[in-house]
Amino acid sequence: MPSAHESDGALDDLVDPELPTSTYVLEPEAVAPLVARVATSHDAGTHRPVHPFTGAPLTSIPLSSAADVAAAVRRARVAQRAWARVPVRERAAVLDRLGALVLERQSEILDLVQMESGKARRSAFEEVGDVAQVTRHYAVRGPRYLVDRRVPGMMPLVTGVRVHRRPVGVVGVVAAWNYPLTLALADAVPALLAGDAVVLKPDPQTTLSALWVAEQLEDAGLPADLFTVVAGGGEVGEALVDHVDHVAFTGSTATGRAVAARAGARLVGTTLELGGKNPLYVAADADLASAVRGAVRACFSNAGQLCLSVERLVLHEAVADAFLERFVAAVKELRLGPGLDYSADVGSLVSQAQLDRVTRHVDDALARGARALAGAVHRPDVGPYFYAPTVLDDVPADALVATEETFGPVVTVTRVASDDDAVRVMNDTQYGLNASIWSVDVARARRIAARVEAGTVVINDGYGSAWGSVAAPMGGVKASGLGRRHGREAIEAVTEAQTVAVQRGARFGVALETVYAAGGETPSQVVTGALRALRRLRLP
Description:
Elements: H1 28-35, E1 46-47, E2 61-62, H2 66-84, H3 88-104, H4 106-117, H5 121-140, H6 142-145, E3 149-152, E4 159-167, E5 170-174, H7 180-185, H8 188-194, E6 197-201, H9 207-219, E7 227-229, H10 234-241, E8 246-250, H11 253-265, E9 269-273, E10 278-282, H12 288-300, E11 310-316, H13 320-332, H14 352-367, E12 371-374, E13 390-393, H15 400-403, E14 410-416, H16 419-427, E15 431-432, E16 434-438, H17 442-449, E17 456-459, H18 464-467, E18 477-478, E19 481-482, H19 487-493, E20 495-503, H20 512-516, H21 522-537
Parallel strand pairs: 5-6, 5-8, 6-7, 8-9, 10-11, 10-16, 11-14, 13-14, 16-17
Antiparallel strand pairs: 1-2, 3-4, 4-20, 9-19, 12-13, 15-18
């Protein structure tokens, strides 16, 4: 992709220093090859995403209409039929090349991700590493997930049964803005491997990153129309749900419910990763130095704008004061900054709306008697949407920040007297996405984890080791979602199981119909005897 600047961390090359909010950050000519990839008839208007670091417009992106979405899905259906006939190893090779390209060209996408989402570069690199990991996994292990599976038949030796995985057709991916590279591909990669086509609707704020992904897939050898980007807001997402064969959605619980209802009316499957109010428990025997380092990253990576991010610290009273002394000191040392380099620990919130939400939650808690141990201030001196990493103690149970997902750099503190109390507090939420437990006694931590209502529980880490273990399923319980991404489960979500049963003995006169032909009570007696024999032999 042509670059409008050099990635030296200086924003002076990106915007007019005299009028930083009146000029495009990216020259239209520089991003024209990407913008041209939007599936649009150019009659639905345009959108101008804003650079979170400065408030300046990034570029102008044409939007898709409902008719554009329908046309994109029709083209995808045609392409998918041919793609499904391509040997799975060849499909896997495309994904393997994609992973290599993302690593090779990471400076391009790191710049785009930062400029669209406002995150620090270290958080942006997490996305590069994630895509490399996911593509490698499905390129190597994915074909095994699709191998025909032999299962026991009704009549041993006589009945042969195989289960095939058939692609559903066209998968619609509706991706959120907080991880624009990861979420463009987390559900698309297994779908493409399975033989499906993908139509992606990114958030309007992060369309360029999605278009960059489409460019890399083309360079990796993916045939045309198998990965299409449609641009727009909720109405475009609704149109997509109305036409595809499976919907993968990442976003809020409220919107997820609406997506599931709309898809359900068509009997179309969904994979939903939704909200979270994720807890981190520091047990009495935890290694505090490690717990502090892990908690800082788990709470404030991507400025807390992460579905798996920790928003609730649950501290055993025996170590609470010692932990907080270290933790608060570490939080206060975090560096905020807008550079396109690795100089900052924490980046910006993505928008004014997100800043308003964070501010409302913190101010509500303080007004109800909470104490700010760190942060609790907007930092316009750094950038328009920056908010200081915040730690709140003595938060009332009815405060917004105690009950709703904040999705920002804010964490609350709760003290408990026992592991039982910790489990009660961790489960006291409508959500169940991720939880973290810190203890030097792993067996103890596993026993606690078994009682926690969450799709993933991570021991002695915040979230990364679970998310990065892409062979294992990832998803939420309760109001945090439906279905799973990653691993075999992601392949099963975008395929249909087809059972093919063969009566091998039919040509030799040994088949169920032969038994029934005897008439009268004889078939029942024969089958009863056979079933008793199978029970004695413990055959499945």
